[in-house]
Amino acid sequence: MRSNTVSFRDGAVEKPVRPLDRRRILLGVTGGIASYKSAWLARILTQAGAEVDVVLTRSAQEFVGAVTFEALTGRRVHTAILEPGQALEHIKLARAAELVVIAPATADFLSRAAAGRADDLLAAILLATTAPVLFVPAMNDRMWAHPQTRANVVHLRELGYRVLEPDVGELAVGEGSGPGRMPEPETVFAHIGRLLEPATGLTGKRVLVSAGPTREALDPVRFISNRSSGRMGIAIAAAAWRRGANVTLVHGPLTVRPPTGALLVGVESAQDMLREIAERLPEADVLIMAAAPADFRPAEVAGSKLKKASAPSAVPLAATPDILVETTGARKVGSIIVGFALETDEPIANARGKLARKGLDLVVLNDARESGAGFETETNRVTLLARDGTMSELPLMTKDQVADAILDRVGGLLGGH
User: Fold this and answer.
1) Of 11-25, 260-274, 311-325, which range is least confident?
2) What class, spelled out in words, does domain 19-196 have in CATH?
3) Which of 28, 139, 169, 262 qualifies as a cystine partner to 247, CB 3.0-4.6 A?
4) Does domain 206-414 bear CATH number 3.30.870.10?
5) Residues 37-59: b if buried by 16+ CB within 10 A, e if exposed
6) HEC profile for the chain?
7) Is 226 marked active-site?
8) Is the backbone peptide bond immediately before 293 cis, with ω within 30 degrees of 0?
9) How confident is the model at residue 374 (pLDDT cuts 50, 70, 90)?
10) Average pLDDT, integer, range 301-313
11) Calpha distance 10→273 (Å, rounded)
């Protein structure tokens, strides 16, 4: 599901190649109120370049019509196991699919799939396919908690199927909130990417990523911080998880949505971030410090809000801890350490100095003055400098593409080349 192959013109980023281009995905929709979300999932899969074959069960058609999915995918929708001229449709669809996604998967369908039934088109496809299968359950919280449903899920996983845990949230009108809500289509899309991604050097590795700014308190309501959104670190964490890594994201206050799949550890100050990184670093195969912790903090924190009338004329500052330096001794032998350098003057020289001074394997250099790069943008233009002296200048890319480029290099370092 890589999206880092892209053409460039006049130094500007063009629309990336669609990450699921021509991948065959079978989307099975069963009869639940959450089936409206499946229409959006079909849309984003199609926009990503996938060829989406939709199979609707009879009960699904009571909630959403075939014409909706045909309009969104541009492909014929399948509804019946026995139609004139389509006697082997379940076999053809099963063989063509690279991935089968059942979303939503009702309690009834989970039960039928666990029992190996083949009493409709979708159930028959499951018995005929050798492709990976992803179930996305959605139902009332009491149905999800029922011992028979739980036993069905255990058995499906024993058969090799992937079954997502439902979200906790509002259910049907009058049913309140609880576990049973279908995950959002974007979350399902992320899991699809992980399932379709080929094995890489990051598969099964423990990857520790930092993202976002820190806040250094001046008084109970004010703080020192910077403009970092956390977007670059989030893109790296998402891409590493998609590649099969076990990802932990230690993040300051974020202004963008956190990634699917990563263990999220929120912090406030640079000292907090140091503590969390140091605790997890001994087990990490890779550390990517994409965060922008504040370099300074107020030397003293006022116990109450500073009033304008009595504000000090100056605020003494103290340095915050250098996380990469202070955690050097906690690094796992053979681990790969990546740092970021946001520079304004002599960027290459300063980045090389950071590479050596902090014992890095790779440093990702940004020029803070360049348009479209650095903080608060969806794009970035970076130069990768490695310990062996090699340097790669990348063109302007989306941050998702930059994340893939960084992880391609990290994967090579893990593999020893």
Assistant:
1) 11-25
2) alpha beta
3) 262
4) no
5) bbbebbbbbbebebbbbbbbbeb
6) CCCCCCCEECCEECCCCCCCCCCEEEEEECCCCCHHHHHHHHHHHHHCCCEEEEEECCCHHHCCCHHHHHHHHCCCCECCCCCCCCCCHHHHHHHHCCEEEEEEECHHHHHHHHHCCCCCHHHHHHHHCCCCEEEEECCCHHHHHCHHHHHHHHHHHHCCCEECCCEEEECCCCCCEEEEECCCHHHHHHHHHHHHCCCCCCCCCEEEEEECECCEECCCCCEECCCCCCHHHHHHHHHHHHCCCEEEEEECCCCCCCCCCCEEEECCCHHHHHHHHHHHHHHCCEEEECCECCCEEECCCCCCCCCHHHCCCCCCEEECCCHHHHCHHHCCCCCEEEEEEEECCCHHHHHHHHHHHCCCCEEEEEECCCCCCCCCCCEECEEEEECCCCEEECCCEEHHHHHHHHHHHHHHHHCCC
7) yes
8) no
9) low
10) 86
11) 40
Q: Which residues contact 388 (CB under 8 A, 6 or more apart)?
A: none
Number of other residues whose CB lies within 10 A of the CB of residue 334: 8
Contacts of 80 (CB under 8 A, 6+ apart): 86, 121
- Please name the residue that has the structure tokens 């990802």: 247
401: left (phi over 0), alpha (psi -120 to 50) or beta: alpha
Question: Could you identify the residue written with the tokens 């990857």?
Answer: 207
Q: Give me the sheet containing 99-105, strands edge to edge.
A: 51-56, 24-29, 99-105, 133-137, 162-163
What is the crossing angle of helices 185-196 and 231-242, to 10°?
Answer: 50
Query: Tokens 């970092």 belong to which residue?
Result: 228
Catalytic: which of 226, 246, 350, 366?
226
- Delimiting residues of CATH 3.40.50.1950 domain(s) in the chain: 19-196
| Residue 89 pLDDT level (bands cut at 50, 70, 90) | confident
Q: Which two tokens stand for residue 403?
A: 């994340």
The Cα 396–Cα 380 span in angstroms is: 6
Per-residue confidence (pLDDT) for residue 6, from 0 to 100: 36
CATH code 3.40.50.10300 region(s) in the chain: 206-414
In angstroms, the CA 42 to CA 30 distance is 14
Residue 378 structure tokens: 């969806």
Task: Write down the pTM of the prediction.
Answer: 0.88
* Residues recorded for the chain: 417
